[in-house]
Structures are given as C-alpha cells and as structure tokens.
Amino acid sequence: MIGSGPAGVYTADALTRQRRVPLRVDILDRLPTPYGLVRYGVAPDHLKIKGVARTLRRVLEHPDVRFVGGVGFGTDLTRADLARSHHAVVYATGAGVDRRMGVPGEDLPGSLAATDFVNWYCGHPDNEWDRFALDTEEVAVVGAGNVALDVVRILAKTADELRHTDIPQAALEVLAASRVRTVHLLARRGPLQAKFTAPELRDLLALPGADVVVRPEQVDIDPTTVGTDRAERPELREVSRAARTNLRLLREQAERPPEGRPRRVELHFWTRPEEILGQQGQGRVSGLRVERTRMDADGRLEGTGEHTVLDVGMVLRSVGYAGVPLEGVPFDSDGRTVPHDRGRVLDAEGRVVSGDYVAGWIKRGATGVIGTNKSDAAGTVRALLEDAPKLREAVPDPVPLERVLDERGLAHSDYEGWLRIDTAEAGHAAELGRGERVKLHGWDAYRKALEEN
Ligand SMILES: Cc1cc2nc3c(=O)[nH]c(=O)nc-3n(C[C@H](O)[C@H](O)[C@H](O)COP(=O)(O)OP(=O)(O)OC[C@H]3O[C@@H](n4cnc5c(N)ncnc54)[C@H](O)[C@@H]3O)c2cc1C
Q1: 136: CA distance to ligand 1 center in Å?
Q2: 3-class SS shares of the chain: helix, strand, coil, % to 5
Q3: Domain containing 390 — which CATH number?
Q4: How far is CA 160 from CA 35, 156, 292, 342, in A?
Q5: I want to staple 4 with a disulfide (CB 3.0 to 4.6 A). Which of 29, 308, 314, 377 is the partner?
Q6: Looking at beta carbons, which pairs linking 295-298 to residues 24 or more positions away fall under 8 Å?
Q7: Predicted model pTM
Q8: 152 assigned to some structural domain
Q9: Are residues 135 and 277 part of one domain?
C-alpha cells in the first residue's frame, strides 16, 4: 500500500478482514505520521471527525499490517522495487495539489492555495511557517466546497475558540494576533450549486464571534418550485435535497440582521474572480477584481459585465484538489487520477497493469467524505483478491521489503515511531495547558520526537 490516508488504511482493513487469501500488508507513507488528510486536512475544530483516527489506528495495530513511514514512492522507492518485494501494490496517494484559478495576479505574494493555509493550521511538516502573517483586515476565499468553509471558519474564529484543539502553537499565536476582520467567500454559482454540506454551513452560521452576511436577493428563490419542472430558471431545476437544506439555512440567515460582532463573513454567490490586483512597489495582493455571473438559458455560466473590486490583502483559492502523477504509473492528466477498471490500474492502451491497483482520491478524484473511501477500497480489494492466484504466480518468491530498503540505504520509521510523535504531541499539549494534543510542527520536531521518546 502506498499512502496511509483513509483509502490506504481502509484497503488494508478490507484485506486483513477476509480469510480467503492469507496475506500481510505493508503501508508505506512519505511521512512518519499516518492518516493522510485526517491528520493534515480535517480542520482542528472538527474534533469528532478527527476521532476517525481511533478506528484507523486499530488497522495499523493489526498483526498482519506494518506501517513504514518516511518512505516516498518515486523519491525513495520505485515501482520495480515494490514489484519484486510484493505481489501487489495499491496506490492510495490522494490528491495532493491544489488547482489554480487561472486569473492574472495569481502568483502575487498573498495569493495562496487553501492547501497552504490548511497545511499551516494542520501542522504539515512541509509547510512554510512564515507564509501566513494575517496582517490584513480583509481576505477573500474563492470556492464553495467544504474546504473553503473550513478556511473561512478558521479565519473567523478567535484564538480562544481554537485553543483546545490540536492546532500548532505557532499557528495559534498568529491567529491570536490576526488583524483579519472581514472574510469574503466567493462562489461562481448560486447557493443551490454550492458543494458545501449542511453540517459545514451550520458550523459557519453558528460562529459566536462573527456575523455571517447573506444577501437576501441571492437567496430570494421560491423554495416550493426548486427542483421541480415549475422552476423557471435552469439553475433551479436539477437540485439535490442537500442543496434545498442549504437554501433553507441561507434564507433564514439572510433574515438575521448583523449584530456588530467583531468579525464578519460575507457570502458572495454568482461572483467570479477576474484579476488579483497587486500593491504598487510592494508586489503584494491589494485587491480582487470580480465579476457577477449568471446562468444562460442552457445552464452555462456567463459573466454579466458587472465588475467590482474587493479591498482584500489576501486571496485563498479553494477550487479543487488534483492528483500528482506517480513515476512509472499510468496517469490521466485531464482527470488527474490513475486510470483503472474497478481498481485495477490500466495502461494507455486500456490494458490491465498486472499487480497494480488504486484506491481513494487518486482513483476517483477529490470527491466524497472520509467514509466514501471505505466502500471504494472494498471494490479495489475485491478485484485484488480475484487476481490473487495469478499474482502469486507472477512473483513466486518476493524479497523482504527490509532488504530493498537496506539495499537503497533508506532510513525509515515505523508504527512505534509514530507513537513517539503521538506521545510527544500529548506532552506538548500538557506543557501548554491545551487539550489532548498539540501538533508538533516542522521536520526537526518530528526527528527529535522520533529520536528522544
Ligand atoms: C482540507 C480538507 C479537509 C477535509 N475535511 C474532511 C472532513 O472534515 N470530513 C470528511 O469526511 N472528509 C474530509 N475531507 C476529505 C477526506 O480527507 C478525503 O476523502 C480522504 O482523506 C481521501 O483519502 P486518501 O487516502 O485517498 O488521501 P489522503 O488522505 O490524502 O492520503 C494520502 C496519503 O498518501 C501519502 N502519499 C502521497 N504521495 C505519496 C508518495 N509518493 N509516497 C508515499 N506516500 C505518499 C500522503 O502522505 C498521505 O498520507 C477533507 C479533505 C480536505 C482536502
């Protein structure tokens, strides 16, 4: 298994639960810490969702499962290394990079991917710590998915509201000194097309320290016609139940007058970014020019020609995640996934690559919640078990992974190593008088924990 996020761990779980084919699973990850985006994506204040790590942990502690941390596929080990040490390889490497908006000014300092901000508040060791000074009063977050709402919520919360979470101390201190007062959320389409879910929207609307401003005219939609043939406009016709719940919540919010709370979140539907403006001389974001949009009669998005400038000093884009090609593994550069048939990797001619499988976001793209990866993994495991006799024939005598790692002179960590980081994070929380865990940040802190505890 390459990748110890939910997809990799659920795949290992399904493999070790069955009794038909005796097997052992190595789960490799480039990081010494398991759980992928459960650790480095799920927002720190979503404690209940983060609790899924307790279930994933049981899989890593299974006697037939071994966690091998600090080993990157493509950087440390090749496909050939794994092909001689295992009967099958499942790629579960997620969708690690952000998509771009494709507007001028996107590379200005202060224009960043939500991924960078998420990495920062989740303490990803690759993160650059000085990137987020939060020394501007207005910020725009572009996107209408759950990640965008996470980012808005963290920006709009006070440090006190986050103190009990595992957010790294350095990030908490920057948030405590934050000058951000207004966060604009921009969605190209309307409230019924937004991809965020009702629980995330409820969390945003429940912020005690921020007024969430919904413009009444943007939610002035007759809820009795939505999702029916009677709906007059194309954007009101094919609408899910979840979208109708969002509409109800937004309509209720639009009726609440702002209460003058310290922070303000403004929701702008039907608004797309056109250009990120830079400050003369300093080359830093000084504004965001946007255009109002609408849907044409065929349901296509079009600009209305109405432009405005938001006076923001930072722009965070959250317009989707994309998979990264893996060396020697087929890749669909349009869909940014590994092509497959029920989990079996396919080459450019559509032929099955024997012994190679995929699971999770690298298989189906960056969609769905953590639990979606469980049923997805089950599909891949079904295919792998069907192929098991053939796979054994193809590699009758696999060499131990340790030998491959030794031959390559690769230092790596194990599950015990992760437990040392885990213990150090609990100790760090106790020292600071903060919750159950405070994330260590940076590679040096990880190395120290791996060596010392
Ligand atoms: C910011 C964010 C917040 C989210 N919040 C929620 C939420 O609150 N609730 C929810 O249900 N879902 C949430 N999701 C969705 C959920 O995290 C995903 O469905 C899930 O993590 C996808 O699992 P995965 O295993 O495919 O990928 P990942 O979780 O990304 O795991 C991939 C793993 O592969 C490793 N890896 C990558 N490349 C290599 C390599 N070359 N060699 C070795 N290892 C490698 C990575 O280090 C990582 O550990 C969120 C997603 C994001 C982006």
Answers
A1: 30
A2: 35, 20, 45
A3: 3.40.50.720
A4: 27, 12, 36, 47
A5: 29
A6: 295/189, 295/190, 295/233, 295/234, 295/235, 296/234, 297/234, 298/234
A7: 0.95
A8: yes
A9: yes
38 C-alpha to ligand 1 centroid (Å)? 6
Domain that holds residue 300: 100-320
Strands (E), 182-300: 182-186, 210-214, 263-268, 271-278, 285-295
269 near 189, Cβ under 8 Å? yes
Same domain, 77 and 110: no
Distance 233 CA to ligand 1 centre (A): 37
The Cα 220–Cα 237 span in angstroms is: 15
Query: Domain for residue 423, yes or no?
Result: no
Model pLDDT for residues 180-231, shown as the tens digit of each residue: 999 999 999 999 999 999 999 999 999 999 999 999 999 888 777 777 777 7
In a domain, 432, yes or no: no
Pick the residue whose CA is nearest to atom 38 on ligand 1.
93
Helices (H) and strands (E) in the chain, counts: 16, 18
**Listed residues 320, 336, 362: the one ending a domain:** 320
- CA of 52 from ligand 1 middle (Å) equals 13
Residue nearest to atom 15 of ligand 1 (CA): 369
- Torsion on CA atoms 176, 317, 96, 372, rounded to nearest 10: 90
pLDDT (tens digit, 9 = 90+) per residue, 334-360?
Answer: 999 999 999 999 999 999 999 999 999
Q: Whose CA is nearest to atom 41 of ligand 1?
A: 73
Return d(Cα 286, Cα 140) in angstroms, integer: 11
Q: Which atom, in ligand 1's list, is nearest to the CA of 42?
A: 5
- Print burial letters for 151-171: b (CB count within 10 Å at least 16), e (below 16): bbbbbbbbeebbbebbbbbbb
Structure tokens of 194?
């937004």
Ligand 1, atom 53: nearest CA belongs to which residue?
A: 41
Question: Which residues contact residue 191 at a Cβ distance below 8 angstroms, ignoring those fewer than 6 apart?
Answer: 218, 219, 221, 243, 246, 247, 250, 269
